[in-house]
Amino acid sequence: MTANKQIVLAARPQGPVTPGNFRVVEAPVPTPGPGEVLVKNEWLSLDPYMRGRMNEVKSYAPYVELGAVMVGQTVGEVIESKDESLKRGDKVLAALGWQLYGVAPAREVTKVDAGSVPASYYLGVLGMPGITAWFGLHDIAKPKAGETLVVSAATGAVGSVAGQLAKIEGCRVVGIAGGKDKCDYAVAELGYDACIDYKAGDLRDRLREACPKGIDVDFENAGGEILDTVLSLMNPFSRVVVCGLIAEYSLAEPYRYRNMRAVLVNRIRMQGMIVFDWKGRYEDALAELRWHVAEGRLKYRESIAEGLENAPAAFIALLRGGNFGKQLVKL
Amino acid sequence: MTANKQIVLAARPQGPVTPGNFRVVEAPVPTPGPGEVLVKNEWLSLDPYMRGRMNEVKSYAPYVELGAVMVGQTVGEVIESKDESLKRGDKVLAALGWQLYGVAPAREVTKVDAGSVPASYYLGVLGMPGITAWFGLHDIAKPKAGETLVVSAATGAVGSVAGQLAKIEGCRVVGIAGGKDKCDYAVAELGYDACIDYKAGDLRDRLREACPKGIDVDFENAGGEILDTVLSLMNPFSRVVVCGLIAEYSLAEPYRYRNMRAVLVNRIRMQGMIVFDWKGRYEDALAELRWHVAEGRLKYRESIAEGLENAPAAFIALLRGGNFGKQLVKL
User: Fold this and answer.
1) Nearest to B242 among A59, A263, A271 (CB)
2) Does the interface predicted TM-score (ipTM) exceed 0.90?
3) Same domain, yes or no, for A142 and A241?
4) What does residue A104 show for φ and ψ, rounded to 5 degrees?
5) Nearest CA to CA, how far is B117 from chain A (Å)?
6) Which residues form the domain of A309?
């Protein structure tokens, strides 16, 4: 067996993340104790929330210590099991982080069926991002048929599921994404009614054109200027699901929102969400997501980086919107 | 009968309201038609929302036209009735605006009982401000006993009711008000656990001291720097009732909020409210408010300006926090 390879947090970012914030290290492959499994990771998920974990600030989850392996969800194969619930060769979903091998208690990993769908789907449409979209939409936004929903980061792992689920509910769906390719894909493949390239300028005017009846739901993944602009076009009794604020994560100073008054005037309900809060109910979401995927109603696109060494560059690109679809690293 | 006197909107404010935005005019006392009543106004309510009506912008209610009588709620006495539901001498709550006499359809005024409580109470604790506090607290904030609630404009018409109702619910209540007198009153008379003078500086540190377990509910009447500071101290799953943003109403440029990220990290639910949305249910609130007032559990303070001519000055002072308690004009 080769040695383990890991990417650790070398330095906390000041503003934008740089390659120097990470370091590749070698370490012995760990040995599983009783009740544990050793997993060879095959896929690593890269997600915007990881940016938050790089800061030494109190949040809903602990931050990564300097010198520690970067956190992240993984899909891999059990190569040694010290627990009867799992055996060598099983494919499992785990949170083993940015490394080639990891050990975890068997009860903290989930066996997945890699026969009917690719194993990597459990990091995206059938994983945290898909579940996030499902609960944000159904438990917070609660859109009604005929309402207009706007979704930012519209072709990303969460946004693409939220937008397609809203189409299934009968909404008019308008995406916001960076670049013509993503916007074309959102309309042609994901079935959105429109998609606006925020890099092309005039966001407010284009959004107003695309939402002639105003905006009833904003499924917010971007934040910053995008959220602020959307706020100014929201209808009375509309809802904002604050799911992600990727545009803010790399700013040294937070973006300063000017349209808070719209919350009062239009009685907007704005609510933050972290998927962990639904932990006991993931299966509600997954059952429906699996069905939609099996029936071909949920399109899903992956953006794949090759090799652990390329994880930092792929992550930095993700934070700038350089990915197109769910960002993964093939290990 | 003397002539009617009215205050009309003379010019739209650019930034802070000035006396020049108003003009006193004389007009004939109007004559009621069939189904209408003529009312001699005795009390005029001054409220922060009126600032919004002075701007020519689309909002939840129409703006005041240039040259038109300023809008506002009034309590007065029927002096001529062309409807069998009301008779001369009845005290009524109406929305006759900034003038001495007004005519309204009988079905648009509400007869009030001025025997058990002063008639002016129907413009405050037993009127829109009290109802606003009740629904904001019970329908949106939903505080639990033991939770910490912060209320800004803490001794004002809405804030004082919201804070006292929260005390009745068993909350720790921390007010924010301008000046030592108001803060002393909030603790000694309204029964708050603490009250912070935002003009004394160090708002965040003092608020943190007064809320050792963080903030679970913010009943927001002020906005601007106050709301932004409160946001930074809110607990996971906390609620912000956006009831008023008086600190913003007179700014030429909106205040720019930097702590939106707290909404995501702490899964804050922030919701705007306008009391009209509960129109069919006012009596639910009023029944309880009347009971609390009758039992002496709700303290209520009025700030009274004498004479219609003094309404503009009193309104300008109100917007700067110069009132101490519910602002009225005795006509």
Assistant:
1) A263
2) yes
3) yes
4) -150, 155
5) 32
6) 4-123+301-330
